[in-house]
């Protein structure tokens, strides 16, 4: 199951837990935070993209992390120092009103809706906590809750780290997509929705998400682009024609528009640090490839080529 970036979900995931529930993260002490910030290694893939006489940077982010991951390493700090604007998938300020306007989306058959609610109870969420969300976002919340069992949390994702950094420095933030566009992208056709929800619930109910989540996080932090490129082969989330079509829709198909908007923003003379989910950097429509086709010189900084 791909984890989507929707900051309201972070709030929904924060609640009291007992021993059988995914534990909320422990916040670092002041001393721990200072040590982690001073010693942070580089994590995640990073590219310099140059055109029109100036450079921007493209960072493949992970939307969950561990407490000590929420600090930039040397390469990302250097990219930050050479840029003026942070570009991210979504502006978090747009999320809550857009979700309220969007509504719960296509309804599920009662047995499938009951299974989704049962899985929310198993994750220790209050009854009905997710019912106002579209089914695919409900699954994203449940995926985030499952990630907590291995010490990962959306609060330590790279996007939030960079947004907090930008806020502290009053750096402009530019959204590359609207929430409406993301919701339209992640919603499968109505005739495929039950199959995709059923497949994701089976993974959750069988405890089969934790291994691919750990593998994804490990590949991301090492900037292992081959493992990331092979994600559909080992995630257990793209095994059927409907699942493969859905994955292409939310990943490859969105990249075309993302590349166009990155290129347009760069063309205005802005020096961008672009942070987009790392899976968008792989596949036949990988963002570095699309930007190269648009005339950018693309230089991999991590992993170095």
Automatic annotation (TrEMBL):
Keywords for the protein's UniProt record, in alphabetical order: Signal
Classification lineage: Bacteria, Pseudomonadati, Pseudomonadota, Betaproteobacteria, Burkholderiales
Top-level taxon: Bacteria
Organism: Pelomonas dachongensis
Protein name: TraB/GumN family protein
Signal peptide per UniProt: 1-19
PANTHER family in the record: CYTOPLASMIC PROTEIN (PTHR40590:SF1), CYTOPLASMIC PROTEIN-RELATED (PTHR40590)
InterPro entries assigned: TraB/PrgY/GumN_fam, YbaP-like
